[in-house]
C-alpha cells in the first residue's frame, strides 16, 4: 500500500493537524516508511510464540485474601467528623 499526498492530507485533517501543502510530500513519504516497517513485521514467523507482557518472566505477588477489620479502628475513625461507639455517625435520612 502506498500513501499519496491527498491521503496524507486526509489523515492530517482527521488527526486535526495543520500541514502546509509543501510539507505533504514529506509526510506521505514518512507514512510510506512506517507502512514499510509494518510490512517487515508482518513477514516475521510467529507461529508457536507465546504472547508475553515482559521480557523477563514474572509472577504477580499474591497474598491470602482474608477478610479482617485492619486492627486499626481508632485510626480509621479518626478521619470521621462524627464517630460514636466505634462506628461512623451520619445524619438520619429516613424519617
Automatic annotation (TrEMBL):
A GO BP entry: glutaminyl-tRNAGln biosynthesis via transamidation
InterPro entries tied to this protein: Asp/Glu-ADT_sf_sub_c, GatC
SUPFAM superfamilies listed in its UniProt record: Glu-tRNAGln amidotransferase C subunit
The organism's place on the tree of life at top rank: Bacteria
Main EC class the enzyme belongs to: ligase
Role, per record: Allows the formation of correctly charged Asn-tRNA(Asn) or Gln-tRNA(Gln) through the transamidation of misacylated Asp-tRNA(Asn) or Glu-tRNA(Gln) in organisms which lack either or both of asparaginyl-tRNA or glutaminyl-tRNA synthetases. The reaction takes place in the presence of glutamine and ATP through an activated phospho-Asp-tRNA(Asn) or phospho-Glu-tRNA(Gln).
Similarity section: Belongs to the GatC family.
Protein name per its UniProtKB record: Aspartyl/glutamyl-tRNA(Asn/Gln) amidotransferase subunit C
The organism of origin for this protein: Pukyongiella litopenaei
Lineage: Bacteria, Pseudomonadati, Pseudomonadota, Alphaproteobacteria, Rhodobacterales
Gene this protein is translated from: gatC
Amino acid at each position: 500500500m502506498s500513501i499519496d499526498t491527498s491521503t496524507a492530507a486526509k489523515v492530517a485533517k482527521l488527526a486535526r493537524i495543520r500541514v502546509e501543502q509543501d510539507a505533504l510530500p514529506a509526510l506521505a513519504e514518512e507514512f510510506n516508511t512506517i507502512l514499510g516497517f509494518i510490512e517487515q513485521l508482518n513477514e516475521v514467523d510467529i507461529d508457536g510464540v507465546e504472547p508475553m507482557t515482559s521480557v523477563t518472566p514474572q509472577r504477580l505477588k499474591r497474598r491470602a485474601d482474608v477478610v479482617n477489620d485492619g486492627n486499626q479502628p481508632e485510626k480509621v475513625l479518626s478521619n470521621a467528623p462524627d464517630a460514636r461507639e466505634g462506628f461512623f455517625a451520619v445524619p438520619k435520612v429516613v424519617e
